[in-house]
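pinging the channel bc i need a second pair of eyes. not urgent but kinda urgent?? the chain im working w is below, pasted from the shared doc
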Amino acid sequence: MTRSITGSLPLTCLAVALALVAPPGLAADPEARAEADPPAEDPGAMAMPAADAAQDSSDPTPPPMAMQMGSMQGGQAPPDARDPDAWADGYEYTGMPGFEQTDQIVFGTVLVDELELASGDEGDGLGWSWQAAYGGDQSKLWLRSQGLKVEGQRVDPASDLEVLHWRATGAFWGRMLGIRQDFGPDGHTWVAAGIQGLAPYWFELQATAYLAEDGRVAGRLKAAYDLRFTNRLILTPELEANAYSRADPARGLGSGLGNVELGLRLRYEVRRKVAPYVGIVWERAFGGTADQARARGDAVTERRVVAGLRVWW
């Protein structure tokens, strides 16, 4: 009995000492102790100025943007966060002194994609495909022309010159509107409208519809792809198809799908702007166009070997 009282005496003395030191009622009431102790400061919370803390909650003035957003881990972006002019306060940025923003630069380019001598079943000739553009990244004036002139024969019906206005519709696509003039006798003048751009996997595509002065309609689809064997040795497969709503005997064209042309050109870029090439071209007429070729005694299928130069500046 004496040992038990002696062993509990130090604990009894410690409890009495704590009761004397603590404020009245705090040691016995845990809720009161929680109210007396200030909460630990949250290092991620944003400090609020005293003036903002004292602001009446009924004040209709919205709080500052920092208070709307909250901490970095929460909150929502304002509705016009992607509007480039919403936060400029009327200030227009024009770049560093002596420089311009890239979307404001106006420049001109010329690309002679094909300038070639061709030798085929119907004889030797000269082929071309070039385009020139002047303007900015969003809008530009565009000239383009393609064709084939075989020695001693008429110009290929697909030979023409186009004057177009090109307008960007996205990062890789743009729409075109303009006119087209056929070369050779009995050529037509067309209103042209279409799209041009870069499809997934880097396929270059052109799709253009044409309306002639006499109401006939035509369409052209072109696709190309650069297959790089090395940084300078490049094989380019190309596909072109032409279709017509109405037969045109004077130009040797029938209604429906007129022709499909497939070309393979292998070029070597001596310089980035100068590249000689060699290749082969296969062309096939269809439908009424093929019938008119047979009536003239011409072959429906033609193969050509080509050699030329690709330059741009």
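so The longest helix spans residues 2-21. and The two ends are 110 Å apart (CA to CA). — does that match what u expected or am i reading it wrong
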